[in-house]
User: Fold this.
Amino acid sequence: MSDTITTAAPSSGAAKVLKINEAVIRIAGNSQDGIQAIGGFLARLAGRSEQEVMTFMTIPSTISGGPSIFQVRIGSGEVLSAGDEADMLLCFYQHSYEDHIKSVKLGGIVLFDADHVQPNPAYEENYRHVGVNISSLTVEAIGGTGRDKGKNIFAMGLLAKIFDLNVPKLLKLIEERFGGKDPSLVANATTCFNAGYMHSLENLLKTFQFFDAEKKDRHQVVMNGNEALAYGLIAAGVRFGAGYPITPWSDIMELLRRELPKYGGMFIQTEDEIAAVSMALGGSYAGRVAVTGSSGPGISLKTEAIGWASMAEMPLVIVDVQRGGPSTGMPTNVEQSDLNIACFGGHGDSPRVVLAPTSVEDCFYTAIEAVNIARKYSTPVFILTDQGIATRIEAFEEPNLEKVCQDISPDYTPVEDHKPYDLTKPNGITRHIAPGTKVLSGKYPIATGLEHDELGHPTGSSKLHALMTAKRRNKLRQLAWDFPKLKTYGPNEGQILLVGWGSSQGPIKEAVDRARGIGEAISGLTIRHLNPLPNGLEQIFKGFHHIFVVELNDEGIYGYGQLATVLRARYCDPRIQGITKSDGLTWKVKEILERARTLASAKA
Amino acid sequence: MSILTTPTTTATPVAPSPTAATTTTPPVTGERKGLTKKEVAADHPTWCPGCGDFSVLALYFKLIEKRKMIHEQITTIAGIGCSSRFPYFVQAHGAHFIHGRALPFASGVSLSRPDLHVFVFGGDGDAFSIGGNHFSHTCRKNIKMTYVVMDNWVYGLTKKQTSPTSPLGFKSKTDQWGAVDYPINPMKQAIAAGATFVARTTHTNPNHVLQMMEAAMDHDGFSFIECLSECVEFYEGAFDASNPRKGGVFKEVPKDHDVTNEGAAYALAGDPFPGYFGVFYKNTKPTKNAKEAEIIKSYQSKVTGLKDWQILQKNFDRMK
Assistant:
């Protein structure tokens, strides 16, 4: 809780009220306790209160049960990461208490369920302990056979009291969430909430109040990265897709399956990953950019068909929600280790485009960009997101949907003559006509994975193979010129440039802010376009002594992470070094800064 | 705008885009002449002289001509193998996909384009070995298309390896002592997987091939034809026993066979080679195409009159 100011007038009781800019609350329990629900409510409340919010959660990959946490960081100013240390820990069990107390700032508050947690005297010195019999009070509040179901809502009532949250708004959210079903659900939830809110917290010395957030022009929407990505695809005009369930990609396919029929589209659950990519390619071939997606293991299975898309120059969007690999790896943990397979996975020279969204909001816009690149350049386009972004919730300015939604219906206007793989076309960009289009010359094209002539008929000509290979590569070189020029976060000169991609953007920016705040010349750079890379990076690199590429993957045999390896190959710049880790968790700001300082002093 | 709104089914165009507005395809009428072989033949086939696949191709041309199909109505799709070169030889929209995956690719086309008749051609390796999983699932989902497997009991393109339909004892380069793995029975496989049209024919009986193709094309659902197609190079004489000109017997499915009787169809399929020829099984049940269209219809009725962005807006309003 940074920037705390003591105010003179306590609002109620004896507790003092502190005005705060932001708070990091970690909720720890078991996966079936509904702690995600509390986190979700808090995030949504922040969105409605024009505050910024970011969440972080871990869930066990077991089917039911197991420890789980949900961390939410709410701020009146910009929130860039889920926060290194928590201001408050709400814990339901002894193991939640023991495992997470170290994540609390010294002097922070530990709010625990006294029915299940026995405080450790060694910790009581450093953290303010507030015990409430959450479970038994919940049972008491609802009575009947409810057991302690609803304790999460009771706990939310406690939090609402401690942080002076907007109660009417929270009650409205409860009503929206539980309304419509059994009316007693809303009544019970409201009872639990009120019981928590009214509970007297004698032990607490102070309560908190957020500063008012800056008024925003547009409403905020609150969602996670997978939702933003799926809705982005819909806005982009995608109406057909196919997939196979795999964590953490499944939410996207579930959402598309549910939503697309409203738009006259469909999403098909296939028998396997290969069928999914193949069916999506059939949809693209039929005239409209289609989507498939998966996580690591599924992407491996799809690579042959993606090579076909490269060869046949068929537009396709492939979503890869990265998780810990290789093989089945760590299904519910975060990693950025699929950059290699996205950029280079597949046999032969098979150029493709790879984009990496950097935040939940960016997932929405990246989806649209991916569809448009796929269409314009007739190419497969990867969206490399990760488990971190996929499951975290953010509030962001509502997009102007009337403006961004697009219609990409196929055009069946008869054509005089058509050569899809026309070598005389500028930039070598292929245009396909959809089946059903009449070709007046009577010569019809074939979409093919064999090396081919301009009409798509097979050829064994070495000259054509060279020309067609160059054509497929050159169009992506052309694309690189379309990308906006990159800018550094912070001054474009300094000691250290922290380069990152995907979900590392937030922690890197926060690291830059923190370092600049104490006079260190550190700047940041996020690369959203990973293949092809945008032009002009070497100009940016020139301004710094050290270029550290921060990625959630292994340093590999030669000592560099996956993006660092690509950048070194591209720029032959020995100043490019890697800061990598593979613990399956998102970056902490502190970690990035410590690693960067150590590496810089070692190289100095 | 619905993906099911296609050039020939523009009954209820929703918010047509500038490009969609110019969409015109001549309406299909019975008056129209069928395409001639000249108009529908493309590259000269790369098959070996005497290959059974030639007659399947010729009969496909004949089907197009006889049924007065036009270029804009069909698409020809294949995977990998000798027979899968098919699309290159047909002057119409087509795609040559990867090994074993022609069916899911074709499903993508079929589901999003009800105006097209999707024909898929391939061989036994493509269908039952590398593509085996897709075969079962396309059968059970009853996705509308016609699938002709030109079964030659051998891998020809890679020059004589054992195929999933090679009979026991067949001497190939991968089984020099003779095949040891029990072969797949394509008919049984299709029936068991829930295919709604299952027929068997052979390239040496052109009229029968055409008859099966026509019946398959008229079937509203997934129609599967196993067409014996001799590989003269690597499995000469494989099907002589089914060819009266070579002293064999061409035994048609008995007149009193009930094609809707799954058990009876399965029993027919168990008859040892050369077995029966004709429609073994035919049943009507709603296609996946129809079911998906129904889902779309019911969901679209809830958002009548709304533009796409307004539908999306409703979701976003709930996330505030």
Summary: Chain A touches chain B through 77 residues (CB under 8 Å). Chain A is about 35% helix and 20% strand.
